[in-house]
Each structure stands twice: as structure tokens, then as C-alpha cells.
Amino acid sequence: MSLKTRVSAYTLTVALFCSTGAMAQQMKAEVLHWWTSAGESASVKVFADQFTKAGGTWVDNAIAGGANARTAGINRMVGGNPPTMMQFNTGKQFDELVSNDMVRDVDALSKSGKWRELMPKPIVDATVREGKFFAVPVNIHGQNWMFYNTKVFADAGLEVPKTFPELVATGEKLKAKGIIPIALGGQPNWEHNLFRAVLVGHGGADMFRKLYGARDPQITKDPKFKESVELFGKMRALVDPGSPGRNWNDATALVITNKAAMHFNGDWAKGEFIAAGQTAGKEYGCTVVGQEPKLQIGGDVFVFPATKDKNQLAIQDKLIEVLLDPTTQIEFNKKKGSIPVRMDVDVSSMDVCAQKSHAILSDPSNQVESMEILSTPNFSGAMQDAVTQYWNNANMSADAFMEKVTNAMRDAT
Amino acid sequence: METISIRAPSVTPSGTKTRRSVRTRLPAAIALLPTALIVLVVFIGCMLWTVRLSFTSSTLLPKLDWVGFAQYSRLFANDRFVTSAENIVIFGVLFIAGCLIIGFLLAVFIDQNVRGEGLFRTVFLYPYSMSFVVTGVAWQWFLNPGLGLQKLVRDMGFESFTFDWLVNQKMAIYTIVIAGLWHGSGLTMAILLAGLRGIDKDLWKAAKVDGIPTWRVYTSVVIPLLRPMIVTAVVLLATGVVKLYDLVVAMTLGGPGIATEVPAKFVMDHLFERNNIALGTAAATMMLITVVIILAPWVYIRYIRQDGRHA
Q1: Which one of A141, A289, A411, B88 has the fewest CB atoms closer than 10 angstroms to its CB?
Q2: Structure pTM?
Q3: SS in 3 state form for chain B?
Q4: What ipTM did this prediction achieve?
Q5: Which of A245, A404, A411 sits opposite B74 (nearest CB)?
């Protein structure tokens, strides 16, 4: 009897060892993403560490450049050798993967995790296709923040502008004092980013949705739209001559080094201030310009390539659990500069900008879908071409620009 | 003056070649088979596939429907593509002509048996060993009005000096040409120098005896003799023109506005960033057609007509 027990205990132990060994070997997740900058890789490491803690093995496959990474991942999915999970931006980037049944439907998990209640509606809508979740959102990025240098404003004796007409007036005063009013990375996508900040701040959320989402040509007849376009045009005089071609982080550096007063960018720019040893609310501030603080939100999601392999499915389930765990969410987003996608976690340990972001988004009417969510990459690209032409040609009239917008609405797929 | 006509001693095709038996050819054929397959499947196959896709409505993933010439009419209604096409012509003409002129002058200069020839050769050829990305970034810094040349001259006391081509919509494409010239002239020099060294010294002596001025010898004797070298250089430079992409991305990213956009960048952006395979492949097809149109007369003259003449 005793021998028998001992033997069975042995067997059990051996079996246990074997199975944990096998489990560890099988809990191997290959993750494809494009978080390669210093801050980004620190943030993805949070996921990797938490997954390792949960007993998995994280195989990191980072490919520099979003477009490169997506092309590589999609090619592998089409070729039948997909990674376990793969990053996308919240929005339309993975539409065709869903319609071609290449990514897994994770709706069952979303119901048990109450994602629909916990996450802002624009994020949910951007991830749900045909009523089902096909991706897991992990963060919220605000795209139209205005960062400003507190010292420059204090020295000039000026108030931080709250609306865009105010901003243009303040900008002219700053310029007269020899300060660069707006630091801009003069590359087409940042010019476009600035245009969207003006549009949503001055024109409002509905106008923003009508342009990028519904592509309603009537919008060009709205006087408020023309006003926004003209305000944007006036801002051409508020950047320095060295702006064209400048990288966004060099533009941020102008604010950090007291050379420029204001800088429009997404909250990822915080990383630059942090790296320079500055603290939000002290050397620099952040605000959303406009009558009401409408924040364009987007972020990152992970998709899970469809598979029939039970083991793979279990690994994917585990990954999802790790991604949305409250501790992981806080730690990841602190490093990433974004805010947790779950509105129920306590953000008091985060910086003032993140807290402000959380507070603004607590009112659903302030949540505006980002362009990536509303529009196809093709239409966004056509708009970018129009905006960059308008911005760089001081002689182009608002009407000529609006004609280009109408053409883009007509031609882009 | 009589024109001096010199022909390279032509290697007459030997009679032994025609008597090669099938047995000796077979291994060669087998050895070449993989290459032939790669050419057929990869090059020609992909080319046809690209042309086919340009007649579809593909966006992110290829889709094999048929929309006729819709993508092409979109393409030619697109400001950016039209600007790209104009830019590549400006760049192509100035770049090839500029490289030939500068390269030739440098080659002539080095051919004067200057002291430290090795050093000069290395210095002039060195830019070519840089990638276009490095070239682009370096020139971007150098031409940036707030950092580079303009600031330097202004700091030296010339306050009104302005050189803002890089950020000026009308002039930006010429900064790309300047960077391209800096990059490509050395290679042209090396090729033409090899050609100059191959010219018979007796020709120079003969010209001297006849009392022909040096410049005249260069224009009437040397340059015609260098023709094969010039053709080689032009072909190499022309491929650089067609694939011009990385220099623009590193230097201006197509800006200010769309002032320095080029066709290859249009194709890349639409294929990989804008999920618009059909429009991207339509632009690629247009590039292919242009290259074929330019090359066809040359191939005709060089191979087809000449063969006819010999026969």
C-alpha cells in the first residue's frame, strides 16, 4: 500500500514536471510589433515581463517602422505562418484581415472582461467589426495635445491660449518678441496633424467626423470649415523658416530648450520631455486647444491570427489576460506615454498630463475618433497631400484648398 | 581637317564557335536553367503581375477584378503624380548631364599627372561609397538655413546672405540634384578616367605635331573615343534616376509640400502606407513604360540596326 502510494506520488511528480516542462515550451508566444524606440521598447518590455511571470515565453519580433512591420506580418499571415499576436493601430488597418477571416474573433473574452463597459466608445467601435471584437485595445493616445513651455509664456507675460483665434493673436505677439511661436516638424504627416488639431478644436467634433468619416462634400460650404482652414493658413506665419523637413522630435526639442513656445503633437511627445529631465506641469504644460477640449483618440491594438490549434488558442487567451491586467496597464502606459484603455483603473500614480487626459475622456462627448479610426489610409493620404500643399504655399487660398479636399473625397478609395 | 576615325581592334567571331556540338552545350544549358527560370518567373512574372494589378481595384490585398483604366485616370488627375513626373525629368536631365560634365572635368584634371593623384581619386570617388540615406541626411543638415551653409556665412558677417533652396518650394528639387551630383560625379570620373588612360599616347603626339589646340583634341578626338565609357556611365546614372527614392526620403521627405516628390516614392507610399495597391502599381507601370520608351530606340540602334548593317 505504502509502496503503491509512493510510486504514484513519484509518477505524479514526474508527470507534473513533464507537463510543466511541456507547458513552458508550449506557452511560447511570438509577438510582432514596431515599438523600437527607447521608450517604446521599455513599454513593450512590461508586457513581456508580465507574460513571463504568468509562465509564458515571450519571443519578441520587433520590426522598425509601422508600415514595414504590418507588411511583414500580413505577408506571414497570408503565407500561413503567422505570429501569435501582432500589433496594429486602432482603426481600419486590419479591416481586410477581418473580412478575409485571417484574425481571431475574441468576442467571448470581451464579454467576460466587460470591455464594452470599460473602454471608451470610439475605441470599442474601432475594434468591433460586425458586432464582434476582433482585436484587443491596449492603450489610448491623444493626438491633438498642445505642449507649451511655461517659462517662455511667463517671461513674455502672456496667457496660454485657449482657442485657436486666441492662439494666432498670442503667436504674433510671441513672434514680435523673437520667440518661435509654434515648433513644427515640417513633414507632411505633422502638418496634417496640426490641421486636424485646428479642425477639431475650432470646427468641432461633428465637422471632424463629417470630413474624415462621412466624407461629406457639403462641409466645404460650412463657414466654420472655411474659418478653420483660414486659421490654419494664418499659422503658417507662426513657424520658423527651418521647419520644412524637420523631424518631430527636433521640433519638440525647440520647446524643451526655450526656443519655441508651443508644439502640437500626440502624447508620445512626452517621452522627449521626460528624456530631457523635465516634469509635466513644471517646465512644460499640456492642454487641448478649442472651445471644448475635444481629444482625438487612437491607440494600439493587438490582433490574434486565426488558428485551430488548441494550444495556440490557450496562449492567445493568456496573452489577452496579461495585456488587460490593471497593473500591466498602468505600468505599460506610464512608459508609453498613453493612458490605460480601461477607464476603471486608478491613474493617480501617473503624471498630470495623463491625469488630464483621463479626466477629459471621462466625459464621452469629448471623445473623438482619430483619423486612423474614421478614414481609410488612402483618403488620409490624399488629405495629407492636400494639406501639405496648402501649408507650404502661402499664396494658396482657402478656396483652392477646399477644392483639393473635394477632389480627394471623390477620388480616394 | 580630316576626321580621325579609330576603331577598336574588333574580335572577329571565330569559326570554331559555330561547330560546337549539342553535347557541349547541354551542360551549359542546364547550368543556365535556374537563372532563366528566375528571369522568367521573378522578373517577367512580377512585371506582368504588377501590370495586371494596375487594372484592378485592389487596396490592402490584391484582388483580381477588372476596372479598366480607372486607376490611370485617377493617376493623371493626381497633382502629386504629375509633380513627381516633372521632378524626375528635371532631376534626370540635370543629374546625368551634370555628372558627365563634372566627372569629365575631374577625369581630365586627374589625367594631367597631378601630384597626389591617388588621394584626389579617393576623395572624388568617396561620396559614391556613401548610401543615399547618409548623403541625404548630410546635405539636409548642410543646406538647412538654420544650421548649415546659410548660418555659417551669416555668422561670418554677411547678414543678408540667403540660401534657402531646401525649404523653398520652387528650388528644393535642385538641392536634390546637388546632392545627387556630389554622390554620382566621382563614379563618372572613375569610368571616364579609365577611358582616358586607354587612349593611345601616339594620338596626342600626332595632334601636337599637327598643332591642334588641346581643347580641340578633347572635343573632337577624345570624347568620340570615350563613347563606350560615356554610354556605360549614362546607363548606370539612369538607373539611379529611375529608382531615386532614398535620397528624397532622407533629405526632404518629398517636401516642402509636394515639391520634391518622385514617382518611386509615390509607388512606395501607395503600396505600403496607403493600402492602395492598384494606384501604386498603375504608377509603377507608368514608370516601366517610360523606361521602355526611352530604352527602345537605343536598343534598336545598338543591337538591331547594327546587326542588320553587318549582315
Answers
A1: A411
A2: 0.81
A3: CCCCCCCCCCCCCCHHHHHCCHHHHHHHHHHHHHHHHHHHHHHHHHHHHHHHHCCCCCCCCCCCCCCCCHHHHHHHHCHHHHHHHHHHHHHHHHHHHHHHHHHHHHHHHHCCCCCCHHHHHHHHHHHHHCCHHHHHHHHHHHHCCCCCHHHHHHHCCCCCCCCCHHHCCCCHHHHHHHHHHHHHHHHHHHHHHHHHHCCCHHHHHHHHHHCCCHHHHHHHHHHHHCHHHHHHHHHHHHHHHHCCCHHHHHHCCCCCCCCCCCHHHHHHHHHHHCCCHHHHHHHHHHHHHHHHHHHHHHHHHHHHHHHHHHC
A4: 0.75
A5: A411
